[in-house]
Amino acid sequence: MALKNLLALVVLLALVGVSIAKPYGNPLGNPRVKGDLDLDYYRFKCPQVESIVHRVTFQYVSRRPTLAAALLRMHFHDCFVRGCDGSVLLKSPNNDAERDAPPNLTLKGFEVVDAVKSVLERKCPGVVSCADVIALVARDAVAVIRGPWWPVPLGRRDGRISRLSEANLPSPFADIKTLKNNFRVKGLNSKDLVVLSGAHTIGVSSCGLISSRIHNFTGKGDFDPAMNPSYVRTLKKRCKPTDVRTPVDMDPGSARKFDSHYFDIVAQKKGLFISDSALLNDFVTKRYIQTQVETRGASFDRDFSESMVKLGFIQILTGRKGEIRRRCAFVN
């Protein structure tokens, strides 16, 4: 009789749309950062969500593989300002939203998020948040180019606020102390800092962001002594002093492949940004780089997956906080 009652309860829960949850506790270990997510959050409300996201993301990224880096960067920029709440997607008639801030003016891939959301709204109107869409799209975009896969617990809700003035992201010009503090206040540690910096393995920047570093570092026509001189000569051939537009690979020699090669080039003092080179100025981050070089990235995929899960929990909105936007660029 007890077994019959249990089976009846399971059937009833399924009929009314209550999931038999797979809760995913918040991994940040920061008492100020609360909220749990669920791997099966949409099991009954929108069971096709992950297959839809994967299909649409694959359609875009398979044609334009560089979108993988762009969409991963978008997720990072979203989570580091007001948390993973989709606020980076919001538009403002006054051009004062997060996406109008200088670091976000080069973000790409909004059309992928919008395409995914459009399909989801037709299948499951008003159910899947834009914050969850970004998190899933970033994961699937990296998977399309054969990068690491990670679980994406779901149940985030969308924020209603997006301010240009709050878009204070980790800077490519930052020293190690500043970078560690940037990550610490978000509940991330030094290992997360160096592991997530490894995303630069598929990154592309521009000459404008490195011009002073290679042409006039201290105002005397010199270059940053933290850089490999031969690498500087190579960069100078590509980037003239007044050139701000020419693209530059963050991981020369392996920029189209998600691998651990980034750590090899940082160890050789060929990190493109000051923030890349700064990783050699801390015991924990330097040791991690050395380990990846020595082991040919044996743990990098696993470490990256773990840090991405942690990233996805930053200052999440759950329960009745926020909303589920119908269109990702506008509040309801």
Automatic annotation (TrEMBL):
Ca(2+) 2 binds at residues 201, 251, 259. The keyword Secreted applies. It is an enzyme of class 1 (oxidoreductase). The active site is at 77 (proton acceptor). It catalyses: 2 a phenolic donor + H2O2 = 2 a phenolic radical donor + 2 H2O. Keywords: Calcium, Disulfide bond, Glycoprotein, Heme, Hydrogen peroxide, Iron, Metal-binding, Oxidoreductase, Peroxidase, Secreted, Signal. This is Peroxidase. The gene is BnaA08g28220D.
